[in-house]
Design goal:
The complex is a heterodimer of chains A (about 375) and B (about 575). Chain A has 9 helices and 20 strands. Chain A is α+β, with helices and mostly antiparallel strands and about 375 residues long. Chain A is elongated, with a radius of gyration of 25 Å. Chain B starts with a helix and ends in a 5-residue tail after the last helix. The N terminus of chain B is likely disordered. Classes of the chains: A alpha+beta (about 375), B mainly alpha (about 575).
Chain lengths: ~375, ~575
């Protein structure tokens, strides 16, 4: 498969009066393959939307270059900038961006009218696009009479009607209610299978990204943190941030002394975790609440502090040193509050202590 | 009995549960109706009655002679020509600058935006005075200079013409469209335009097919505001047109009444002409209804995203220069001219330091008439402001919270005077309160106060109702639940919450009242001149430098008050 979207050293800096210069996107290098569904995932202010807008051509680059379908469309060095209308993309926006002064037919026909197609061809292709988005026969209806889900279908129809090779989706589902969100997700995938376009999908919802993507990129504070398949990212998060962002996490501050690991605040009882090579001093270990084994016989000895009955699991808070570890078990494993217990660590990831500055920086960016 | 009360509670009419037969709400409702009857209904009725009836009999003779007199037909034509031209030119200019400041990457946006609002602060007749000094056919400074330096025999410009009147009115009225469109562009979701770019449309196609249609409701709202204001406008055509016998409907009405010296016959002729002016404005209002009912769109943005600014590239600095020149022409030149002329010894002397003096200001300070005018204007503006502030809140409360039968009538009556030309309103007030109905306020300051209140009540009413709509009923209900009576919850909860809107409402009335000319000029008596009237009269009697000095003082007062408003409204607490 060929690389359809290529970003090389793409950097974007904004200067605002309040915060000075901020690097919204820092040296992004990325290759998205043909026919792939690729997600940009991250919290607000991470640079995902800015990157999408640079690909679409709505933002200039501060450095670097972007290639679409083998054609250079933005390059700082060559002073090259192809305007959005000449990039041949399809795009769907969070707020639908359906033109309220046009009926559904005119909305969907607009890209074809711009391309000066014949009336008969326009009518045919609009009809087909409306059929694929379950809007058959609604040509004459105005968007204001439609629900959010239907408006987003118009936006989708408008995007697919030109048969673009690349489809940019900017949080297209986040204005919809949860039930609808799920069904639209399937519809988008079905359209992709039918038309074979490449999708860039921007979202801050990790489960949505996991469900829809072939590969995804997690970014944070203007940096790409990790790129990979949903499984890779979930199973081998490169940083504590990714671990926390994808799925549920529980963290433990630990001190490594020689080949022993102690939870912070309890230097008597070592944790039953093997120490990987080259790790010493203060660290953080991360694991998932359902990857901890709670039993009465083997492992780290402790006591149940709190027990909550959730719908699908029972959640326990267990004291480890000066911290509380979150553990989720099937309902058949029952402990009472205050009961003695043992914890076995099935799978842990090791991360260095995060410095204070990163947290500050993240908070500052979220105010932009 | 008990069951009946429960049902009434369902209609959320908590006040009615107090059980008193005559409560505060009822009192407010009745007062609101009586008040609007006195200040709105009676004057309108009196105009219609006097135009068509004479000594109790239907008499169309007067109406016929006045309407079909040759002079008046030319006044109608002038009014319409000026109104339409000002609307077209003002809309184009307002639209152009709104787009430039709202969608392009032109520098100094917020500063320029503030500067473009300045004409809105000052009365257009100040501009007319300044331009008359510069471009008048007889000895305007620019004309004289050009004639001596270029050896011309005739003055190249003539501001005392239809074109001149249109030019000055445009420079004061284009902000109506400018403001409407800028705010529409700001509220518009930028992705509406971006999705058209993605669909393959070029920048110019996006403007034509997406942006313009979406801001059309804002454009037509602004354009009709210009049209109505221009049709009813008195100051500019009065200052620029009288010397060349160019009349419009408002100025010809003034001329009738001025010539008649307050005789009933003159006022009746004025009333007949007023009907004509009302007719023209009503046509414009009907047009407005038709255009506005064609619908406004929901273009409010979802995600806060800056719109993509269009790069002007090579055109950036020429366009910036054009904007600066426009600002200099419409803002700086008239203001500087007023101040300079206020310093000069006599009209026509070159504007060089040797000819400057403070005598004009000394003359103002020693003229009892002028000082009286300033005092009258301050008294009138503050009284009208305070009264309308409270009455506006009361009417808004009745309309929004009490919702009596006929609240639509109440609402309609309180905003109606805004679309009635000031000249017409003044004649209605004269006819109503100069003895015909047994009360004679003519030549007193009270008749002007009544006119100001009728003219500006809608401002404070609108400000208060916008704010009251945000006060959720549960806030007052919570106060009742805590043991407060209806009156107490009104006093302790509702009023404090809408206080910022009340203060804003006061200044919305105080500022235009301070510079009012159109109604005052028809209503003033020997001892009740206002600031605007005095400036106009001084100029009319040839004391142009003194008139300018007084206008300069008025400008300073307006600037100071505006600064106070900005300061107050900046830290207002939201409801």
């Amino acid at each position: 498969m060929e690389n359809q979207i290529v970003l090389r050293h793409v950097t974007k800096r904004f200067t605002t009066k309040k915060l000075g210069t901020i690097t919204a996107v820092n040296n992004f290098n990325l290759e998205v393959r043909e026919g792939e569904c690729f997600s940009f995932l991250g919290p607000s202010g991470c640079g995902k939307t800015t990157t999408l807008r640079m690909i679409a051509g709505f933002e200039d680059l501060s450095e670097g270059e972007i290639e679409l379908c083998g054609r250079l469309v933005s390059s700082k060095d060559q002073h090259l900038y192809v305007p959005p209308e000449e990039r041949g993309l399809g795009m769907v926006f969070q707020a639908f961006a359906v033109w309220p002064h046009m009926n559904i037919f005119d909305n969907v026909a607009f890209p074809l009218q711009i391309r000066k197609l014949s009336q008969t061809e326009i009518r045919e292709r609009v009809k087909e696009a409306l059929h694929h988005t379950s809007l058959d026969g609604m040509e004459e209806v105005y968007p204001s009479d439609l629900s959010g889900g239907q408006q987003q279908r118009i936006a989708l129809a408008r995007a697919i009607v030109t048969n673009p090779k690349v489809m940019l989706l900017d949080e297209p589902l986040s204005n919809l209610d949860p039930k609808l969100r799920e069904s639209m997700r399937f519809e988008i995938k079905a359209l992709q299978r039918k038309f074979g376009f490449t999708i860039i999908f921007v979202t801050h919802d990790q489960s949505e990204a996991m469900a829809i993507s072939d590969r995804m990129m997690v970014c944070d504070m203007g940096n790409i943190v990790q790129v990979g398949t949903p499984e890779e990212l979930y199973n081998k998060p490169r940083t504590r941030f990714v671990h926390n962002f994808l799925g549920q996490s529980t963290f433990l501050h630990v001190v490594v002394k020689g080949d022993k690991v102690y939870a912070r605040g309890d230097m008597d009882q070592p944790l039953p975790i093997p120490v990987p090579p080259n790790i010493q001093g203060e660290m953080v270990i991360a694991t998932r609440p359902n990857e901890l084994d709670l039993n009465r016989t083997t492992g780290f000895k402790s006591r149940i502090e709190n027990r909550i009955f959730l719908t699908d699991t029972t959640q326990y808070l267990v004291r480890v040193g000066d911290q509380l570890l979150t553990i989720q078990t099937p309902h058949r494993i029952t402990f009472a509050e205050g009961e003695a217990c043992c914890i076995r660590f099935v799978k842990v990831m090791w991360y260095p202590e995060e410095d204070e500055k990163a947290a500050e920086e993240r908070a500052k960016r979220q105010t932009i | 009995m008990k069951f009946g009360m429960m049902q009434r509670q369902g209609s959320s009419d908590l006040a009615a549960l107090d059980g008193k037969t005559f409560n505060l709400d009822k009192a407010m409702t009745i007062i609101s109706f009586i008040l609007l009857l006195i200040i709105v209904v009676i004057p309108i009725f009196m105009i219609v009655y006097n135009a068509f009836f004479y000594k109790g009999r239907l008499d169309l003779e007067m109406f016929r002679t006045v309407v079909f007199s040759k002079d008046n037909i030319s006044a109608i034509t002038n009014t319409v020509i000026i109104g339409v031209s000002v609307t077209v030119v003002g809309t184009i200019i307002g639209l152009f600058y709104a787009w430039l400041l709202g969608r392009s990457d032109i520098p100094c946006k917020s500063l320029m935006r503030a500067l473009f609002m300045i004409p809105y602060m000052f009365p257009p007749f100040f501009g007319a005075m300044a331009w008359d000094m510069l471009l008048s056919g007889r000895g305007g400074y620019v004309n004289t200079w050009l004639m001596t330096h270029l050896g011309l025999t005739a003055p190249p410009f003539n501001i005392n013409s239809l074109g001149g009147i249109i030019f000055v009115e445009v420079s004061y009225y284009f902000p109506f469209v400018f403001m409407q469109v800028v705010s529409a562009l700001e509220r518009m979701d930028p992705t509406l335009e971006e999705s058209a770019r993605i669909a393959g449309a070029s920048q110019s196609t996006v403007i034509r097919r997406i942006t313009l249609p979406l801001v059309t409701p804002a454009i037509s709202a602004g354009a009709l505001l210009i049209l109505i204001s221009s049709l009813a406008h008195f100051g500019v055509p009065a200052i620029l047109g009288f010397s060349k016998q160019i009349y419009t409907l408002p100025t010809v009405i003034y001329a009738y009444i001025d010539r008649a010296g307050g005789s009933f016959e003159g006022i009746r002729q004025g009333a007949a002409l007023s009907i004509l002016l009302v007719f023209v404005v009503t046509m414009a209002l009907i047009l407005q209804k038709i255009v506005l009912s064609s619908g406004s769109y929901d273009i409010i943005k979802g995600k806060s995203m800056r719109p993509t600014l269009i790069k002007l590239r090579g055109a950036k600095y020429p366009l910036l220069l054009l904007a600066i020149v426009t600002l200099i022409l419409i803002v700086l030149v008239p203001l500087i001219m007023i101040f300079l002329e206020g310093l000069v010894k006599a009209y026509g002397l070159p504007l060089v330091p040797e000819n400057f003096t403070l005598d004009n200001f000394k003359a103002i300070a020693s003229s009892k008439q002028t000082l009286d005018a300033i005092r009258n204007s301050l008294f009138l503006s503050i009284s009208a402001g305070v009264l309308c502030m409270f009455l506006g809140v009361m009417i808004a409360y009745v309309v929004i919270k009490i919702k009596p039968k006929g609240k639509e009538i109440l609402e309609m009556l309180s905003v109606l005077p805004y679309s009635i030309p000031g000249t017409v309103l003044a004649i209605g007030v004269i006819l109503s309160w100069s003895g015909q109905l047994g009360i004679n306020l003519y030549n007193t300051v009270w008749i002007i106060l009544v006119a100001y209140m009728a003219r500006y009540l809608s401002f404070s009413m609108k400000s208060a109702s916008a704010s009251l709509q945000q006060v959720h009923p549960s806030l007052e209900e919570a106060a009742r639940a805590c043991g407060a009576s209806h009156t107490e919850s009104l006093k302790d909860i509702t009023l404090p919450l809408i206080r910022p809107a009340m203060i804003a409402g006061f200044f919305l009335i105080f500022l235009p009242s301070m510079r009012e000319l159109t109604t005052s000029i028809l209503l003033y008596g020997p001892y009740t001149r206002t600031l605007g009237v005095q400036i106009f009269a001084l100029r009319d009697s040839g004391q142009i430098p003194q008139a300018s000095a007084l206008a300069g003082i008025a400008i300073c007062i307006i600037i100071i008050c505006n600064a106070i408003v900005t300061h107050i409204t900046k830290d207002k607490r939201g409801v």
